[in-house]
Structures are given as structure tokens and as C-alpha cells.
Amino acid sequence: MDIAALITWVITALGGFYMLGTWIAHGGARGGTSHLPVPVIFGHFALAAIGLVVWIIYVINDKDAMAWTAFGLLVPVALLGFTMLARWIPVRRDRASAPATGELPAERHFPVPVVAGHGLFAVVTVVLVLLTALGIGD
Q1: Model confidence over 60-78: pLDDT tens digits?
Q2: Residue 129: inside a domain, yes or no?
Q3: Host domain of residue 111
Q4: 103 and 91 in contact (C-beta within 8 Å)?
Q5: How many domains in the chain?
Q6: Is the pLDDT higher at 94 or at 25?
Q7: Is 138 contained in some domain?
């Protein structure tokens, strides 16, 4: 199950990298019209990346403390992710989200399938990591 969690985590990260790149390319990091705060975006990214490294170390060394550390890192990652999702949904639904300048919020450019896939794989990852840390499925 630890390898399955690693695979889903990597797939989740790929979707996250794509959205981060899209957000940056459309001016999200410059503030502008984005509804996603820069610290939330980069906090989510940093904690997820650190957690992935910890999980890789766990897969290599099989130390229970590393599995629980990775899970502990996933909790704030998930909370930040839900925060961003809650702020993204109204932007996506609002057809008139362009201000007078005509500039759309950077997150308006996220493809819905990528957001949905990222979220789905993230939930599966959290569940697999928790089950592994609990010793279920060994």
C-alpha cells in the first residue's frame, strides 16, 4: 500500500505542478485579480513537497515515525487545498469574473478535469497514507 500511496501522491503532485505553473503564468503570484493568496498557494505546495520527500524516505526505510510524519504534513496540506477549492469554485462559476481591465483571475484558467483529478488523487493519497501508517494492508 505504501507504493500505491507513492504513486497517487506523485500523480497528485503532477496535477498540482500544472496548476501552479498555470497560476504563475497568468499572473497569480503578482497578486492582481487572483482570489488565492500567495502564502496559501506556496504553503500548500511546500508542505506537500516536504511530505512527499518524507514519504519516499518512509518507503525506503520503513520507519513508522516517517509514515506518521508524512500523514501529519498531509493534514494542513488538505486543509489548505480545501481552502483554495472553496475560493476557486465561485471564480470558476462567475462568468463575469473579469474586472474592468478584462483580466481574468489566474485561477480561472485551471481546467476543471485537472482540479477534479488533483482533488480525487489527493483524497486517495491521504487515505492510503493513513491506512499505511495504521499498519492496515501490510
Answers
A1: 999 999 999 999 999 999 9
A2: yes
A3: 2-133
A4: no
A5: 1
A6: 25
A7: no
